[in-house]
Amino acid sequence: MKIEARGIKKSFGMPPQEVLHGIDFIINSGEFIALTGRSGSGKSTLLYILSTLDQASEGKVLFDDEDASTWDSKKVHAFRNQKLGFVFQFHYLLPELSVLENVLLPTMKTHAEEKNKTRAMELLDIFGIADKAARFSGQLSGGEQQRVAIARSMILRPKILFADEPTGNLDTHNGDLVMNQLKKIHEEEKTTIVLITHDPDFAKLAGRQINLIDGSIG
Amino acid sequence: MNFLAIRYLLSKKKQTILTLLGITLGTAGYISISGIMLGFQTYLLDQFINSDCHVRIQARDEPVTEPEVRNLLFPEGNSIHWITPPSGRRGEDNIDNVPGWTERLSKDPRVLAYALQLQIPVITQFAKVTTTTQLIGINPDDQLRVSNLEPYMTVGSFKDLSKGANQIMVGEALLSKVGARIGDYLVLSLGNKGSQPFKVIGTFKFGMKRTDEGTIYTRLVDAQSLNRSPSKVSDITVKLIDPEISLPFAQELSAKSQELVQSWEQINESTLSVFKTQDIVRYSMTIAILVVAGFGIFNVLSMTVTQKRKEIAILRSIGYEPFDITELFLLQGMILGFIGGLIGLIIGFIICKLLSTIEVSPGRAMGMGKMMISFAPRIYLIGFTTAFASSAFSSFIPARSAGKMEPMDIMRSD
Ligand SMILES: Nc1ncnc2c1ncn2[C@@H]1O[C@H](COP(=O)(O)OP(=O)(O)OP(=O)(O)O)[C@@H](O)[C@H]1O
Ligand SMILES: [Mg+2]
Known about the structure:
The two termini of chain A are 24 Å apart. Chain A has helices at 43-50, 73-83, 99-108, 113-126, 142-154, 172-189, 200-205, and strands spanning 3-12, 17-27, 32-37, 58-63, 66-67, 84-87, 160-164, 192-196, 208-213, 216-217. Chain A has 7 helices and 10 strands. By secondary structure, chain B is α+β, with helices and mostly antiparallel strands. Chain B folds into 3 domains: 2-48 and 271-413, no CATH class; 60-93, no CATH class; 94-233, no CATH class. Chain B is 55% helix and 18% strand. The relative contact order of chain B is 0.18. Chains A and B meet through helix 2 and helix 3 of A and helix 1, helix 12 and helix 15 of B. The structure holds adenosine-5'-triphosphate (ATP) and magnesium ion (MG). Magnesium ion binds next to helix 1 of chain A.
């Protein structure tokens, strides 16, 4: 799925402070983009706008040439559920649910959890936490939780996957594991990936880098 | 979302149990208090309506008023000045036209049965003990058609009265007060009209002290002969086919006659007003459950919503809609209300069952002398509905605010 950013500006607060100063780009279907830049340059802000979670102050985001701001709430949520995957900077799991249930959470929206159980277990297996599937997610280490969150983002084979420093909490081994997995679904399933990372090596794995400097593309 | 709602409740067991406890206790309290009050009311109403009569006709005795006397004596005189204005009581303690009444009542299709009575105050004496009592002369067969008295008999039957002259049924309390037994003779006297001995052939117990200590039943003819007034009747008791029309029926008769005609509602007005107070207490209880259950749930859910902000953001980013989030929290409140209400019903029912085994009036035939508890389905319906509805209502407010949260606002605020 193609993503197009047109003149995206974002301001916060009163008086408004502009954080993004008019961002334009096109990410083609199946591209793997690394979003880089210094801390505070506006990467997360841009990612949230691209992923429909936040609204731009000006400009718009188009998915396959459709303006997402014209969609109603139902469509936006169905789109997030079926077409997008998220990995946040801070791994947010639901501590009341088991690891497996957390992974299956997106599928529960459409009551498709039974159908996806095998895939969920496969994903957990790939990330080396299949043996912990029945545990409550609060009992996992930070890195393990992050991997569960990534498995969850992939469960419905999203068209686009947004990841905000998914490897931030992981050691080298697990960081590589996650990156390889992202690379794999990008190659096998033609998933469009937008990845924020500080790690230059990981950034190099991407097909293209978009570098933000103080809220503008550098 | 049901699955997640249940998980949320289970994950904070202590809070859940405390909230449930509040709802449960409120509901159980309402049920047992209503059971006691309504049971008592039903019992008394039964006494008023079925054990006494629907409508009572009595000789009217009322104060004499000045304008009445003036109009009678000086129909044209407007400038009358009394040195001492007339005062006093008019009236007869007997009903004037008994045959007229009996004819009228037997022709009225609304009347099921009627019975004549002569009620006279008498002094009762046994050995050296004397006490004042109300002697009620009845025709047993007629009276039993009007009043359901037999369940209150502890010894004998009212029908036995017709088997001979000068026999009496007395309250159990009266019997022990004067120290007499079945088969003893009590001397009933009427001041200057003399006295006669009466044989005790049975006892009753209504469970109301004043009646049980101060009432004696005998045959109408025996009462009349003691009173030396052969055909005198002081009261006519009436049973209607439909007790609901007692009041209009009494009002209609009262307007057309000299006598005082009162329905059971009018006779027992003061007790019925106590019922009203009790009902207010019960409704206040209902409001109390509402508040207890409501506040408990409101607090717990508001806290949960605040604690779960990040999870709400996650769920929304995964594609759960605002409505799903509202439902998630609304369901928790409704589950709490449902389960709490249900357990409350069961506990309330058990309490009522236990209460109904307590003996409050030993020897009373009616309800075997046990505490009268109402198990009316209405109580249970109201108790449960109130608990459930208030739980649902008070979870709606935090649930809706959870639904309105936007994921970005949550993520930014951390
Ligand atoms: N809610 C907000 N209110 C005001 N300013 C904000 C808000 N969110 C972000 N900012 C500001 O916008 C700028 C960009 O923030 P953003 O989180 O996008 O940076 P980032 O590139 O993701 O940084 P990092 O690499 O540290 O995650 C920062 O200066 C930040 O202070
Ligand atoms: Mg960031």
